[in-house]
Amino acid sequence: MTRNTKLSQTIIVTATAAMLMLAPAARAEIVQTQELATQNQAEQDRAKVQSFVERATVKEKLEAMGVAGLLAKDRVAALSEQEVHALAERIDAMPAGGSLSQMDLVIILLVGILVAIAI
Q1: pLDDT digit string, tens, across residues 35-45
Q2: How many CB atoms within 10 Å of residue 58?
Q3: pLDDT at position 28
């Protein structure tokens, strides 16, 4: 063999060994479908409540109660999964026409109170 062939083989073997040592170990676990669905639902609920708090009319109501918009977002992020799910269900039950009922105002007040208590 020529000197160049031996040098190339040495470089290839060294590079291959280096790549094998740097490769992360693969890890797999069995994941329950229900667990995955619950996580996905919680993320969807949190996104729904966040978008609700970002609406202009809701921001106005919260600011009228003395709660800043950024603070409301932080407080929604700090809510437990059960609280977020309950609020998301209430948001789904709200009328789409834009008029708020007394129950809707109570929900907004509850969010405002949760934010105010957390301060």
Answers
A1: 767 777 888 88
A2: 20
A3: 75
Q: Tokens representing 11?
A: 């470089």
Residue 98 has pLDDT above 70, yes or no: no
Question: Do residues 72 and 111 make contact, with C-beta atoms less than 8 angstroms apart?
Answer: yes
2, two tokens: 């020529």
Q: Which tokens go with 101?
A: 């009922």
Residue with token string 């834009």: 98
* Closest C-alpha among 12, 87, 1 to residue 50: 87
Q: Are 63 and 24 in contact (CB under 8 A)?
A: no
For residue 59, what are the contacts with CB-CB under 8 A and spacing of at least 6?
53, 69, 72
Of 83, 82, 58, the C-alpha closest to 68 is: 58
**Averaged pLDDT for residues 73-78:** 81
* pLDDT score at 119: 67
